[in-house]
Write a structure and sequence with these properties.
The complex is a heterodimer of chains A (about 325) and B (about 350). Chain A has about 325 residues and is of the alpha+beta class. Chain A contains eight helices and 17 strands. In chain A, helix 1 packs antiparallel against helix 2, helix 1 packs across helix 4 and helix 6 packs across helix 8. Chain B is of the alpha+beta class and about 350 residues long. Classes of the chains: A alpha+beta (about 325), B alpha+beta (about 350). Chains A and B meet through strand 4, strand 5 and helix 5 of A and loops of B.
């Protein structure tokens, strides 16, 4: 699974440009699903199984896009000015490296700021692609780039750019491979454009019209020095979301997840996230609505090029989903 | 086909189209009260289209069928509403308190003539004369509550009446000047498109309401109704292209006048479908049409709601650049408008199911 995680996290895929990472996901699943399709927004939608009498049509979603940047201006000296795609923090950009969709690479520099300790905004940053003038700059206005940072193992911790949310894509792949029998008609969705407002999950949910929606995504933690206060920490198991900034999980589905974890004696934690939301929000309010919930992977340094998760939490999430989906889900 | 013969197929803007733009620009159609503009649109499109109706929100939905065979259903949306004001309270002597509808900078309101309600009652948003100002007054922001619309003692308006700027359209030859060019330029272009049926696609034209309020409300329901294979939003976008006062490089121009149609890659509401971006840029270069990529960043168009409708609709926006948008008067170039119309028409004409058949 670590090989797959490395491949998925290292693939290029800023929101709206997920083709490369989608291909990695497709190669990993296509021999294990009954059918798959790619919709108008680029979502990869794969079906496994059909509905038994006590089963449901369930959508599982892991977003395959990542935050990135897009060129807004090439100046006379060949420096590339840019704006964000998704929640890019300027302080995480400085001295970072990026790769453009067209292959060009560059490093991010910052203007001299007064006073020196001023927090920069994106307007103060630029990409140096090695050009000396506008004419020899390999990047044009409107071209998209992703952050580069290699995959790293630190004991049980895994670190990479785009761990948000490729780790969940890897979890969906493992879940669908490990599921030997299920009463459900399962739609595994590798969704696009989550970081810019859950856009892929919105259209995927409409197209699938599921009865239950579950997203798999990363969540923040409260276990680093002087971090914000939060119960969730790395290595304490997958987190079952109770609420976040955009959704209240269906309490029956929360209970079904807790029951599944307890049936197989998995450690788990309950998550209450103050800000942010996931694809589950889009599913919950799609068409005439559906019970929705989320399995979260605790992750440190979110929206930085070095996002960190714990491998045991990752494996726990797979086991939790396999157990949950192997049985009928009684919401009664 | 070479450049010239491709371009020859595109609709042209002449005296007739400019005269129509003048009527549309002078008409008042603040968001939620678009009736006056809708009347002109219906009068213009009825003789040429195969189907036309007005939906529950007030969108005009018109279809012009393919000339040869329908292989695609393509939606083009142009919002017909404009930014403006609404009366919220009557005070004595024909003075009214008001609120803004859509994005307006308070500082552009002072000292402007306005037209109030369906009868276009003339009024003015008065300013305190400079003689009577106190030191420092001109350095403070003006709260909207301190501004009034003055209709005079005989002025009979009612709370809820919409208020438009009184600017009259001017044809300056190379440039066009007027209010509400955002987006009557798009409306006039879409009316023209309906007169030129596509060979292999049905043109589903949506003249939408309530775009300026945020959420592109009219476009959402129009797209749901049409359920097209792909959609273009035809709009106007700011050109903040004046030179910097200190001679430094202007890096936030958004678009530039005289640089042609503005093609969107990304704004706050939409990441344009890359297949359509490529198709449109290829079309521009094949036909020799002047176009520019709009700087990615803020703003949004009808595409923001259209692409998220149902199971998703490949979408892209193309705008005419205009200076001073969302103020009482804007300036655009005739040539940029012509480029926009030609680029949208030829992009629709050349779009095939193959382009949309590749995975995004």
């Amino acid at each position: 699974m670590k090989t797959l995680i490395e491949k998925l996290t290292q693939a290029f895929g800023p929101s709206g440009y997920e083709k490369e990472v989608r291909q990695v996901a497709l190669d990993a699943i296509k021999d294990h699903v009954d059918e798959w399709r790619i919709d108008a927004l680029g979502n990869l939608i794969a079906r496994k199984g059909t509905k038994a009498r006590d089963g449901a049509r369930i959508m599982l979603s892991a977003h395959i896009d990542e935050i990135g940047i897009i060129a807004t201006h090439i100046d006379e000296k060949g420096f590339v000015r840019f704006t964000n795609i998704g929640g890019v923090r300027p302080d995480n950009c400085i001295a970072g490296r990026v790769r453009f969709l067209n292959g060009a690479r560059g490093v991010i520099g910052v203007e001299r700021l007064e006073p020196r300790d001023k927090v920069p905004s994106l307007e103060n940053l630029f990409v140096d692609v090695g050009a000396t003038s506008r004419a020899d700059c390999p990047v044009k206005v409107g071209e998209v780039a992703g952050f580069e940072r290699p995959f790293l193992e630190l004991g049980t911790r895994l670190v990479s750019k785009a761990m948000d949310d490729r780790i969940a894509a890897a979890i969906l792949v493992e879940t669908l491979k490990n599921l030997t029998s299920s009463p459900h008609e399962l739609y595994f969705v590798f969704s696009t454009q989550e970081e810019v407002g859950l856009r892929g999950a919105t259209t995927a949910a409409y197209g699938i019209d599921p009865e239950i929606g579950i997203s798999v995504d990363v969540t923040a933690t409260g276990d680093t020095p002087k971090s914000s206060k939060m119960e969730v920490g790395l290595g304490k198991g997958a987190a079952i979301k109770v609420r976040d900034g955009g959704m209240l999980s269906d309490p029956r589905l929360v209970q079904a997840m807790i029951d599944a974890a307890e049936r197989v004696s998995l450690p788990y934690q309950l998550e209450v996230l103050e800000g942010g939301t996931t694809d589950a929000r889009a599913m919950q309010i799609s068409r005439s609505g559906m019970p929705a919930g989320c399995v979260s992977i605790p992750c440190r340094y979110l929206h930085s090029p070095s996002e960190m998760v714990d491998y045991q939490d990752v494996q726990g999430a797979v086991s939790l989903l396999v157990e949950l989906l192997s049985q009928p889900i009684r919401l009664g | 086909m070479d450049n010239e013969s491709l371009l020859n197929l595109a609709p042209m803007i002449g005296a007739e189209q400019i005269a129509l733009l003048e009527r549309l620009s002078n008409a008042c159609g603040i968001s939620g009260d678009e009736g006056e503009v809708r009347t002109i649109i219906l009068e213009q499109v009825k003789p040429t289209v195969d189907e036309v109706r007005v939906d529950a929100l007030g969108n005009v939905l018109a279809v012009r069928k393919a000339r040869k065979e329908t292989r695609l259903r393509l939606m083009v949306a142009a919002h017909m509403d404009e930014i403006g004001l609404i009366l919220v309270e009557e005070e004595e002597g024909g003075l009214y308190r008001f609120e803004k509808i859509g994005g307006i900078d308070n500082r552009t309101l002072v000292g402007k003539m306005v037209l109030v309600g369906k009868d276009h009652l003339p009024g003015v948003i008065g300013a305190r004369p400079i003689h009577l100002q106190e030191e420092g007054d001109d350095e403070r922001a003006i709260p909207i509550d301190s501004l009034k619309i003055d209709l005079g003692p005989g002025g009979k308006a009612k709370v809820g009446d919409r208020v438009a700027f009184a600017t009259r359209f001017q044809n300056l030859g190379v440039s066009l000047m007027g209010k509400a060019l955002d987006n009557r330029l798009g409306v006039a272009a879409l009316i023209e498109l309906l007169k030129h049926p596509l060979e292999y696609a049905d043109l589903c034209a949506a003249f939408t309401v309530q775009e300026e309020l945020g959420g592109a409300r009219g476009a959402r329901v129009a797209a749901h109704a049409f359920n097209p294979n792909a959609a273009f939003a035809l709009d106007c976008t700011p050109a903040n292209d004046l030179p910097s006062w200190d001679g430094s490089e202007n890096v936030t121009y958004n678009t530039r006048l005289d640089a042609g149609a503005a093609v969107y890659v990304a704004d706050r509401g939409t990441l344009s479908d890359p297949r359509l971006v490529q198709h449109v840029l290829d079309t521009a270069s094949a036909a020799g049409i002047f176009c520019q990529v709009r700087q990615p960043g803020g703003g949004s168009t009808d595409a923001a709601s259209i692409h998220r409708v149902r199971a998703g609709i490949p979408s892209l926006s193309i705008s005419t650049p205009g200076r001073y948008l969302h103020t009482p008067v804007s300036i655009v170039r005739l040539a940029d408008w012509q480029s926009t119309l030609a680029l949208v028409y030829l992009s629709l004409q050349r779009l095939t199911p193959d382009v949309l058949g590749q995975p995004r």
